[in-house]
Each structure stands twice: as C-alpha cells, then as structure tokens.
Design a protein that fits this description.
The chain contains 16 helices and 11 strands. The strands form 3 sheets. A 6-stranded mixed beta sheet has the order 2-3-1-4-5-6, sandwiched between helices. Strands 7-10-9 form a 3-stranded antiparallel beta sheet. It is an alpha/beta fold. The two termini are 39 Å apart. The protein folds into 2 domains: 2-205, P-loop containing nucleotide triphosphate hydrolases (Rossmann fold), CATH 3.40.50.300; 222-478, no CATH class.
Length: 480
C-alpha cells in the first residue's frame, strides 16, 4: 500500500503549513483527544511522518485520513518541480518524480506529497488570519499540480480579518474544488458532518464509502444520546430517592448541642453523596462522547458547581413559578415534600424554611424560594434498643428535581460543545448557561413531574420510565 494507500478505500491527506492546525482538524473530525493516538503540539514540525488514521465502523475500514508533515520549503520545492517540467506545465507526473528523486533535499515535501502521488485526495488546512504570502501561493500551486480532488479548509487561529479571508477564498477558489470553513477548536457534530459531505462532493469514485461513514456517524450520535439519556435517568432516580440516616441515642436527643452537631454531619454526608452521584453521571457522559481531558466539576461544598445555597441557582435553573404551578397542578401535586417536617435545618445556611407543599398553587408560591434539607428525628426504630435515627433528604423544594435535570442537560451541552482538537485540560463551566427545562413543552413537564413525584416518594413509577427515557432523548437532541 504505497504512501499509506489502499485502492479500495478512499483516502485524504491533510496537508498545510507547520502548525496550521492539521492535527487539530483531524482530532476534532475523528474525535481523538488522546495525544497517544494523535499528537497535537505547538512545537514546529511535531508531525514528521505520514500517520494513517482509519475510520472504522462495524469492524470495517471505510475511509482513511493521513496526517502529514507540514510544508517547510514550498517556494524552493515549487521551483524544483517547475524545473522538472521544463517549458511545460507541471502535473501529476512531475509530482511523482519529485517524490521519488527529491527525498534528501526536500524530505518534508516529499513525504507529504507521496500519498497524493499514490492517489489520495487533498485537504489543505490554512489559517485565514495570516497574510497570503508567496510561500502559501507556492503551496497552492504544488497542490493544484497533483490533479487530485482538493478541499481547502479555513481554520482560523486568531481574530478574524475579513479582508484577509476574502483574499484567501478568492485565491483558493482558483485552485481547489471547494473551500470551506472548519474551526478545529470549535467545530461540533454538524460541522463534522458537513466536512464529510464536502468530501462527497469532490470524490465521486468512492461516494458509497463516504456516505456509509456519514450515515454511521449519524447512527452513532443517536446511540450516544440514548446512552446519555439512560445515564441521566439513572442519576435522577438515584438522587431523588437518596436518603441518609444517622443514629441518635437518647442522651444525644436530650442535649441540643449534640443534636445540632449530628444534623450538620448528616447534612454534609447527604450533599457529599449527592455530589458523588452527580460525578458518576458526568463521568458516564464524558465516556459516551470520548472525552478524556475534561474533569467532572464536582465539589461537594458547592454541589459540584450547582450552588444550592445561592438564590441565583434556583432563579436561573429549573422551572419558573408559572411552570411549576402548571406542572404541579397537572401532575396532581408537587414533588417536593416526602417526609413529615420534623426538626428542620437550613441547607448550607441559606434559605427560608418551606413546609410540605402539594398541588399547583402551593408549588407556585414556593417555587422560587431557597430549599432546606429535610431532616426528621424519630420514627425509625434501630436494632439497638430505643435508639432512633435522623433521616435527611431531599431538599424541600418543588424545583429540586428540575434543577438537577437542568444541571445535567447543561453539562451535556457543554460536552457536545467541546471540540476534541483542544488539548487544554479543565472542567465544564455551566454557570453562564440558561435553563433548558423551561423550554420543554408542557406535556413533557407534566410527565416528568409525575415521575419525579414517584421517585421522591421512594417508589419510581416503572410504567412511566419508557416515556421519560424517550423525552430525555428528545431533550438531548434539542440541546445539540
């Protein structure tokens, strides 16, 4: 297989200047954020050999990309190819001769042109924020002489300069079959799909293979949404049924200071477990979408970025008052209160104590208030004689379940927005994103409210789970 080529498999060599974003483009297109598989570096000349990157579905390779070294001496290489052509116009024959005869003098150019001489198509990556200098013009001419199907990608790596981009587009339009924009640090699924569709336009001989990849990628995205919806559904059920108990001896109940201390400890345990459930769900979502460089933003003290002690959280996320009222009325009662009030303690020192609520009207008046963590004493016999227990969970708010769902939908959107070509490590930022559940149709809100209520009562409605799952899949598709 000369030049990393197989005549039965369409191949495209990604070429361009050193650090033009070739590897980042491939990483985003193929969803590779692992440097062990595809190295992305600011070090000039990081890619020194042609690296085949196969696209495999169902155990079969359908398409192949080739990461190539960058141009190092394009002007000199262009002149050498022109010399080989004599008085004629250079073409594929001169490119093949250059690859064979000029490896010592032009090692990088020979390596990147070898797969083109063997039949690969061209994906030329440029930064339109840079001026169109003679060296770029030389690269464009050399690639035109290959006679292969050619796609030019504008991959901006700085602030856009409209005049420069127009100049690039005009010049590339004379030498390439298509010119498209593809920001390797921002591109999402739709941009990836459109890039493959552009290849379909310039490579008709292997159209069936390329269509197969486009269809398989769409099916894969559908399957991922279903996996993500399952993870979120399981998280919500676990979170809404979460209860934490703490034994209380008779002597502790008679000493207010001891009881308050146990309450504080119980509260801390509850939120730590809740954050643990959240972290596990985020990890599952990251795995579904093949992200290894993002850390789940879990901090039990702040409920992993979802600060339950701030009024802003309960005003920005979850349903608004009118939506809570409507959902509560249609569902036959709000989902906030499960246990008797008992002895209360404010969650994280914030909020106004909320009594048990039921029905749409009550949900409306309580919907935007801060919750408290429900803690009760007594009512649960333990093995040890007359010892009792305190039981904590969940926070008393009709909006609690909706805020949890919102937090996961927003994180899911953040994961989708993260291009695999990025190599910076970090956590998902969610604070500035708007509520997703407020955009739900009323029928979906009513269904979810009923299911939330069953979970909060400790008996999740299994009959409604298929409908809830289907609606979560729709919600994830609507969010990108």
């Amino acid at each position: 297989m000369e030049g990393g080529m197989n005549p039965e498999i369409p191949a495209f060599a990604v070429v361009g200047r050193v650090n033009a974003g070739k590897s980042a483009t491939l990483a985003t297109l193929l969803e590779i954020d692992d440097d062990e598989l595809l190295r992305i570096s600011a070090t000039p000349g990081e890619t020194t050999e042609v690296q085949p990157l196969p696209v495999v579905y169902d155990g079969q390779e359908w398409l192949r990309f080739l990461d190539t070294p960058g141009f190092q001496q394009p002007v000199e290489a262009m002149r050498e190819i022109q010399r080989m052509a004599g008085s004629g116009v250079p073409g594929p024959a001169e490119i093949a001769r250059f690859v064979k005869e000029c490896r010592d003098k032009f090692p990088d150019e020979a390596r990147l042109l070898e797969p083109l001489a063997a039949g690969a198509g061209v994906i030329y990556v440029v930064d339109p924020c840079k001026p169109l200098r003679d060296s770029f013009l030389a690269e464009i001419e050399i690639l035109r002489w290959t006679g292969r199907p050619r796609l030019a990608l504008l991959n901006p790596q700085g602030e856009a300069v409209p005049e420069l981009e127009r100049e690039w587009r005009d010049r590339l339009g004379t030498a390439f079959n298509l010119v498209r924009t593809f920001d390797a640090h921002e591109a999402r699924y739709e941009e990836r799909r459109r890039l493959l569709e552009a290849l379909l336009q310039i490579e008709e001989h292997h159209a069936g293979h390329i269509r197969r990849v486009i269809d398989a990628m769409a099916n894969e995205m559908d399957a991922r949404r279903e996996e993500a919806a399952e993870a979120i559904l399981e998280f919500l059920e676990s979170a809404l049924t979460l209860r934490v108990s703490e034994p209380v001896e008779a002597r502790d109940r008679s000493v207010p200071g001891r009881l308050e201390k146990k309450k504080a400890e119980l509260e801390a345990r509850y939120f730590k477990k809740l954050a643990g459930l959240e972290e596990e769900c985020v990890k599952r979502l990251l795995k579904v979408y093949r992200h290894h460089l993002i850390a789940p933003d879990v901090d039990p003290a702040r409920h992993s970025g979802l600060d339950l002690a701030m009024a802003e959280t309960w005003q920005k996320w979850g349903l608004n008052r009118w939506q809570l009222a409507a959902a509560g009325a249609m569902a036959g009662g709000a989902a906030g209160a499960v246990f008797d009030l008992g002895v209360g303690v404010h969650s994280l020192g914030a909020g106004t104590v909320i009594g048990a609520v039921s029905g749409g009207t009550a949900a409306f008046f309580k919907g935007s208030a801060l919750p408290r963590l429900k803690i009760r004493t007594g009512g649960l016999e333990l093995v040890r004689g007359e010892d009792k227990a305190m039981v904590a969970g969940p926070p008393e708010s009709a909006n609690f379940a909706w805020v949890l769902l919102d937090s996961m939908l927003i994180r899911h959107a953040g994961i989708l927005a993260r291009a695999h070509g990025r190599r910076d490590r970090g956590v998902l930022e969610v604070a500035e994103l708007a509520s997703r559940v407020r955009e739900f149709p009323s029928e979906r809100r009513t269904l979810l409210q009923k299911w939330f209520a069953s979970c909060l009562k400790g008996s999740p409605d299994r009959g409604k789970e298929p409908e809830v799952f289907a609606e979560l899949v729709k919600a994830l598709a609507e969010g990108g």
